Amino acid sequence: GISVISIVSCVFYPIEIFPEELHFFIKLNPLYYYFDLMRLTWWAGINYGEAISYITIYHILIVVIFTIITPVTASFLFIKIYNKYGTSGY
After folding, report:
1. Has residue 64 got a pLDDT over 70?
2. Is Transmembrane helix among the key words of this record (predicted)?
3. Using CA atoms, how far apart are residues 71 and 53, in angstroms rounded to an integer?
């Protein structure tokens, strides 16, 4: 099924269809910015000037920061758990 995270990431629908009260919480989700960037570039097509006019520095910062933080955090957690439990069976 469709998870709640994909719904509030605005994968299938733009943020405008959600009540105004939820916009703050949706914008806390970093996936929203990934999908919004993809939607904006797809919507603008090859007209990059128009696409750039809709993309804010906030979009780019969120995407870059979470693109760096996510694998670093995952690696740290993997090493921590691996050192604690090691490998067992396969």
Report:
1. yes
2. yes
3. 30
